């Protein structure tokens, strides 16, 4: 009983805020990756039961969506050039730069259809600019997907490189597994194997994006 005669609630679980759940999930993502995120793990860290979390989020996918929400808006939009071709390149380079600073997002996006709605302006900008360059709407969508695959792929490999670097005892298999004995079957790779790491380390994503964009826009049908 309390002093005013009312009964005190016994064993009532502590109130948890949705933002607290999201913040914990985001921290785990940043530090350990998407596989480390589970409703049970987060419930334990916020001092609640897994069932209590389901009052705030439907499942793990919805939780991951919430970790993405608003992330793109934390980075100011760049000033884009007027030329539509240059706008595509600038937007694609910006996309890569944003994700480079939030590399954990790559783990979330790997699950498929999850995204931050606030980031979709980049897709819209690329598709619109591609149409203005003469591509059909279908070609423009395909062009966007190709650009996204390059950006995403580059960051996946960067993520993998960082994980390998964290394990100094791990021996790389490529290109060290190539020898001159492989020259018959793999003549070009065998010849370039000693230069491979140096050349790939100098890979310029922005320059490659420009080349890809130019190739995609070359398919535009000239008017008349």
Describe, in short, the structure shown.
This protein has helices at residues 18-32, 39-46, 50-53, 60-68, 84-101, 104-109, 120-132, 137-165, 187-201, 205-217.
Q: How many strands, which pairing sense, and closed or not: the largest β-sheet?
A: none
Helix content, binned percent: 55-70%
Structural class assignment: mainly alpha
**SS field, number of helical segments:** 10
- Regions with little confidence, pLDDT below 50 for 5+ residues: none
Question: What would you say this structure looks like, in words?
Answer:
With 224 residues, the protein is mainly α. The protein has 10 helices and no strands. The protein has helices at 18-32, 39-46, 50-53, 60-68, 84-101, 104-109, 120-132, 137-165, 187-201, 205-217. Helix 1 (18-32) packs across helix 2 and helix 5 (84-101) packs parallel to helix 8 (137-165). The radius of gyration is 24 Å and the shape is flat. The protein starts with 17 loop residues before the first helix and ends in a 7-residue tail after the last helix. 19% of the residues are buried.
Descriptive tags:
10 helices
Layout of secondary structure:
Layout: H1 18-32, H2 39-46, H3 50-53, H4 60-68, H5 84-101, H6 104-109, H7 120-132, H8 137-165, H9 187-201, H10 205-217
Helix pairs in contact: 1-2, 1-4, 5-7, 5-8, 5-10, 7-8, 8-10
């Amino acid at each position: 009983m309390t002093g005013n005669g009312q009964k005190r609630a016994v064993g009532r679980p502590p109130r948890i805020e949705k933002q607290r759940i999201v913040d914990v999930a985001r921290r785990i993502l940043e530090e350990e990756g998407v596989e480390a995120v589970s409703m049970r793990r987060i419930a334990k860290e916020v001092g609640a039961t897994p069932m209590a979390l389901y009052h705030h989020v439907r499942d793990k996918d919805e939780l991951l969506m919430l970790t993405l929400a608003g992330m793109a808006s934390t980075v100011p939009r760049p000033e884009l050039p007027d030329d539509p071709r240059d706008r595509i390149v600038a937007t694609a380079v910006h996309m890569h730069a944003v994700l480079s600073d939030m590399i954990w997002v790559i783990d979330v996006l790997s699950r498929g259809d999850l995204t931050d709605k606030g980031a979709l302006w980049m897709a819209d900008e690329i598709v619109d600019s591609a149409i203005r360059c003469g591509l059909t709407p279908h070609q423009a969508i395909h062009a966007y997907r190709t650009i996204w695959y390059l950006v995403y792929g580059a960051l996946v490999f960067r993520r993998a490189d960082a994980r390998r670097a964290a394990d100094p005892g791990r021996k790389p298999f490529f290109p060290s597994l190539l020898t001159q004995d492989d020259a018959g079957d793999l003549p070009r790779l065998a010849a370039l194997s000693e230069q491979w790491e140096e050349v790939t380390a100098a890979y310029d994503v922005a320059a490659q994006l420009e080349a890809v964009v130019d190739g995609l826009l070359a398919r535009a049908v000239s008017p008349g």
